[in-house]
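ok so I'm stuck.
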Amino acid sequence: MSLAPRAVLVHRTTEYEELVARHGTHGQAAFFLASRGRDMAEVAERHRRSRRALAEVTSAVPPAWRQARVERADLDRFLFAPEDVVVVVGQDGLVANVAKYLDGQPVIGIDTDPGRNPGVLVRHRPEQAAVLLASVTATATATATATGADELTMVEAVADDTQRLVALNEIYLGTAGHQTARYRLGLEDDGGVVEAQASSGVLVGTGTGATGWLRSVWQERGARLPLPAPTEDRLLWFVREAWPSPATGTSLVAGELTASAALTLTVESDRLIVFGDGIETDALQLTWGQTVRVGACGRRLRLVG
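replied:
not stuck anymore, here's the structure
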């Protein structure tokens, strides 16, 4: 007997809630903001819009479905099931936060603050939730075409000690403080050519990440490589501020990775980290001599269009 789908509503603590938690009361938080030239009313209104959106989406879940709710800080402790339909209620970045914990479950992005969010990943309004959820049936979760979902490419890093990290936008390899990282960089199937480098780190990004950090580096470099589309099996990589010296080179500083290609990095310093989508607190820890392989992930994020 198959289980009914479960709607998992993913949200995050609002700025208002964080301020009140930090300062104790609404009045104290308002005084703090006023002393810095900000208006508490604006922050409170965004909080109310966010909570109204969450309530509207909750009420739109079909009665026969099961429900669960998870806050962003608890994602690493939440167990997603194959039959889940994930509804992200918030900002674009919240979709990226949840992506690495999923394995084929359809995701619906609900924008709680239209006009303030770019709406790249949270593409829908709260009032559309009922129609979207009704279209995602238990049988429809089997294929992307059945749910009208885009299969967004993800990037993964796998270390030689089996540590693994998956991200939707980009993966960064370097030092925790973005200081000089020392390593040997190479491309698989490139005749074994590697280069010793000292830089501010290496960034490997997807087409989804091409709307954020990856794009800023791409623009700064004036790169001739076209940015990948979110569903394209192609990644771009850039070495940030490579430093030429008698022992380090700058010939391998940018390129693209097709679906079967990978970038390899061997650590030549005491400690490097690998983190994804800007979350340094969830990082792989690498030490001298370890090697990490970065390329397109076999999993995709199924984002309902």
